[in-house]
Amino acid sequence: MLLQQLSGNLTQGLILGAIYGMATMGLNLIFGVMKIVNVGHGAFIMLGTFVSFAIFTYLGLTPIVAIPLAFIVGFALGSLFFYFIIGKLTNAPELNSLLATFAIGMLIEEVTKFIFGSEWRGFTWDVGRVTLPFTVLPITKIYAFIISILVVIALYLWLRMTRSGTALRAVVEDKEGARVCGINVDRMYALSFSIGIGLTVMSGVILTFFISVGLNPYMGGAYTLRAFVIAVLGGLGSPLGAFFGGVIFGLVENGSYTLLSLIPGIEPFSLTRFVTFFILLIILLVRPTGLLGVK
After folding, report:
1. Rounded to the nearest 5°, which phi and psi values hold at 137?
2. Could you tell me the residue ranges of all domains in the chain?
3. Is pLDDT of 253 > 90?
4. What is the DSSP string of 71-86?
5. What is the mean pLDDT of the chain?
6. Beta strand pairing call for 136-138 and 129-131
7. CA dist., res. 133 & res. 118, Å (int)
């Protein structure tokens, strides 16, 4: 019985961890290229959940349609914020960009509140279930896992096999050297920021495939915290590392709940966060740069 419950929770954790990892790739991409920490990250995830909610509830379309739409919305917002705000702060002190992304996050939250209201929202999208020996998986969660994997592969192939991806990696390696070789560094900054925000908003849609209730304009704070933990765990600046960090985070978060529930007199849900951060501490003691981070 315990093994069955643990296997079921680990399966759920693997799927959720893949979503977490995909949601953090945008944060790591922006930091890796521009060395800017987007503290408004969770607000963009929240925005993606409301794009999914609006597509399903108001238009009656499958949330899958919201995936490319959310990326387009995120890319457009990323471009807008970069050219009017972030692009002017690339050489400014780090605190300036932190405050700017914090303000952008608050703006996104308040605009979403103005449009949708402050109450909790949710929707039910049921396309069937798959029964495994140790758990029952809604097909929507399987969709979320597969799409997250495909997004990771697409980003990896873009970075490794396209001209713009190669130029972006050159900027990461040596900004001045890339500029001498004729690469428009400012354009690469804009591209990385826009794609990073696009991936983040899109991840909010995929998150609703796993859980489509409890949507609120101020729900992003918890996901910002998770994203920072995952980014450090995977290695700051490494989008691929963010994905693997997310998978580990999801497995630990869900797996520890099962084991902690065996201890009498404690609340397992509240302790899962402690266990997750403790394991993060151990990993960073062994590898301070994270799993795929570089010095």
Report:
1. -110, 120
2. 2-109+135-286
3. no
4. HHHHHHHHHHHHHHTG
5. 88
6. antiparallel
7. 41
Those residues whose C-beta lies under 8 Å from the C-beta of residue 118, and which sit 6 or more positions away, are 216, 217, 218
- The dihedrals phi and psi of 131, each to the nearest 5 degrees, come to -95, 120
Could you give the percent of the chain with pLDDT greater than 90?
47
Would you state the pLDDT for residue 196? 95
Which pLDDT tens digit goes with each residue over 54-83? Answer: 999 999 899 999 999 999 999 999 999 999
Backbone φ and ψ of 8, nearest 5°? -65, -45
Q: pLDDT band for position 256 (50/70/90)? A: confident
- The CATH number of 2-109+135-286 is 1.10.3470
181-198 burial string, b = 16+ CB within 10 Å, else e? eebebeebbbbbbbbbbb
| Gyration radius of the chain over CA positions | 19
Residue type at position 3: L
Task: Name the residue with tokens 């992003």.
Answer: 220
User: At 62, is the secondary structure helix, strand, or coil?
Assistant: coil
- Give dist(CA 36, CA 29) in Å, integer: 10
Task: Give the ranges where 138-234 is alpha helix by DSSP (H).
Answer: 139-161, 163-173, 175-180, 185-210, 220-234
Band the pLDDT of 294: cuts 50, 70, 90: low
Model pTM? 0.92
| Helix, strand or coil, per DSSP, at residue 122 | strand
Residue among 18, 47, 75, 48 nearest 192 (CA): 75
Q: What are phi and psi of 121, to 5 degrees?
A: -125, 170
For residues 53 and 285, give the distance between their C-alpha atoms in angstroms, rounded to a whole number. 41
How many helices (H) and strands (E) in the chain? 11, 4
Output the pLDDT for position 2. Answer: 67
pLDDT value of residue 1: 65
104 sits in the region (left: phi over 0; alpha: psi -120 to 50; else beta) called alpha
